[in-house]
Amino acid sequence: MRRIDYKLIEDLVPHGSTVLDLACGDGELLSQLIRDKGVRGSGVDVSQEAVEACVRKGLSVFHGDLDAGLADFADGSHDVVILSMSLQQLRRPRMIVREMVRVGRQAIVSFPNFAHWTPRLQLFLGGRMPVSRDLPYQWWDTPNIHLCTIKDFRALCLEEGLCIEHELYLSGVDRQPPRRAVLPNLMARLSIFAVTRC
Amino acid sequence: MGGGPPLSSPPPTSRVVMTAAKRTERKEIGDVAMSLGADAGSAGIVRTKHVTFDQPGQELGLEGGGTLAPFTVAYETYGELSERRDNAILVTHALSGDAHVAGLHSANDKRPGWWDMMIGPGKGLDTDKYFVISSNVIGGCSGSTGPASENPATGRPYGTDFPIITIADMVNAQAMLLDHLGIKKLLAAVGGSMGGMQVLEWAVSHPERVHLCVPLATAARQPTQAIAFNEVGRQAIMADPDWRGGHYYGGKPPAKGLSVARMIGHITYLSDEAMQEKFGRRLRDSHDYSFTFSADFEVESYLRHQGLSFTNRFDANTYLYITRALDYFDLTRRHGSLVQAFRDVTARFLVLAFSSDWLHPPYQLKEIVTALRATHKHVSYYEVESHYGHDAFLLEREKMEGIIGAFLASGARTFALPG
């Protein structure tokens, strides 16, 4: 299955640009970007297995903890810095967004939208912490410690002085986005933001 | 460091310092890896081979000026060189290492090569796929020309008349060994500590001759603290009355001084946690203090043993020369900055740091990564979680093997021979 969210991110990345993919996992998105967009790409991940998987694919990868920031990366050293579906797992999401626009000209962040109607309903009707296909964990063992909504992320951008260049909505990693977004904060399961320093 | 016995292995069997006579005797002997009765996964029975460069034009020009000629390089090889000569991996050794990196020297040899855990059929450096080469550095005392070798000008051992050599000189000698073996370009250069410095030097000085570089537990310039420890070691050797200005061959060697130098070195290869765990404050063989200066504590007797056994296999002058080469190593010196030094590098890098290494802490390896990245070189960084300190690169097989194996395998797919 080709992930639609990866495809949308790919469309946002200029051909031949230098890309840093944070929390790159096994390097699937990165490989795709190198293959399809001819980017000069590298990744960062905290897990040893992920680093090894990337190295196995011939990718350039840095073993590091995003919660410690991006001190090993120079200002403006990349065209695009990507954080795909991992913002909610970081201890200091605001710091990392700030770091992304320091290291890169453009930051692309995708995250599950906690204001989607399913979690809303689960909380409202069931009175329990939402568990769904997108957020499959119980509250006590979830790695998702900083969930936010589309509106929340817009507010963060405003506070950080970031201009939103693109804002995309999806109803699943494997589903084509709707042609017209109606009430995205209620209807989108996940969202992709492309932001720059204003 | 390294090459020496890691913390967890048995004390070394005594190995004599190679003399010129021994070298000639062993010169003709030996071919590689007849896997006689060796364990599965072992590189088998190996012999150290020697090549002497004594023809006109084969002088080794030295970074500090002058030349070394003639000179001999001791080396071992494991696995088979492919027909296209595109599977050669050079493994470079640390301060106290030698050419014997894997396998055994005889069927009843108790002690395999110093990185045997990584090299052999099916291992990280898989000798079913790769042709692994390891050589003793020049200035060394395990078969390559060094201060104990005969000075052609006098007919006596060089002693301190041996020229000061550098990491770049060691690498240039290795390049001549590769010429001798008919290898134009290495698939990879792999090494830890001083071996890692040689790997970096390979990438910088011979960019067209190496495709993959794996430096471990090392630095692009010898850090101040390491220079300081080396200086204490050198002072210990030179303060030994038996050192006699370095011209002690034929007489009593400065064993006490060398042994103290090795003891200091050993401390820097461990970590607080590893020492605490292995020795604690345990007493050697009594329940109480002896109220004397004898080795009451286990850690004391361990260091004394390590120091003493080292003197059976290592030459004190070589210790002086090699530590000097380490201290002089600074890639920024010749090139202005590290970024500048790496400018012409074409090799892909996998840089490995070890979390508890305080001789070369992870930040020193990250410095290499950052500089390579500045000019968009292909580089990966991996930090091995370990409490073994600097010695971790000689011990943490399981944590290194996978990633190094993966790097070599994926890198081999992009390897192109020159021309």
Attribute tags:
heterodimer; A: 198 residues; alpha/beta; Rossmann fold; 7-stranded mixed β-sheet; 7 helices; 7 strands; B: 419 residues; Rna Polymerase Sigma Factor, Chain: A; 2 domains; 8-stranded mixed β-sheet; 12 helices; 14% strand
Provide a quick synopsis of the model:
Chain A has helices at residues 4-12, 28-37, 48-56, 93-103, 117-126, 150-160, 184-187; strands at 18-22, 40-45, 60-63, 78-84, 104-112, 162-170, 190-197. Chain A is α/β, with parallel strands linked by helices and 198 residues long. Chain B has two domains: 20-221 and 336-412, Rossmann fold (3-Layer(aba) Sandwich), CATH 3.40.50; 228-324, Rna Polymerase Sigma Factor, Chain: A (Orthogonal Bundle).
Describe it for me?
The complex is a heterodimer of chains A (198) and B (419). By secondary structure, chain A is α/β, with parallel strands linked by helices. Chain A has a single domain, classed as 3-Layer(aba) Sandwich (Rossmann fold), CATH 3.40.50.150. Chain A is built from seven helices and seven strands, in the order αβαβαββαβααβαβ. A seven-stranded mixed beta sheet of chain A has the order 3-2-1-4-5-7-6, sandwiched between helices. The radius of gyration of chain A is 16 Å and the shape is globular. Chain B has helices spanning 20-27, 167-181, 194-205, 224-239, 255-269, 272-278, 298-313, 316-328, 331-335, 338-341, 362-374, 397-412; strands at 49-53, 60-61, 67-68, 71-78, 88-92, 119-120, 125-126, 131-135, 186-192, 210-216, 348-354, 379-384. Chain B has 419 residues and is of the alpha/beta class. Chain B is globular and about 70 Å long. In chain B, the strands form three sheets. Chain B has an eight-stranded mixed beta sheet, sandwiched between helices. A two-stranded antiparallel ribbon of chain B has the order 2-3. Chain B has two domains: 20-221 and 336-412, Rossmann fold; 228-324, Rna Polymerase Sigma Factor, Chain: A. Residues 1-39 of chain B have low confidence and may be disordered. The two termini of chain B are 37 Å apart. The A-B interface holds A 18, 40, 42, 48, 51-52, 54-64, 72-74, 77 and B 348, 350, 366, 369-370, 373-374, 376, 378-383, 385, 399, 402-403, 406-407, 409-411, 413-414.
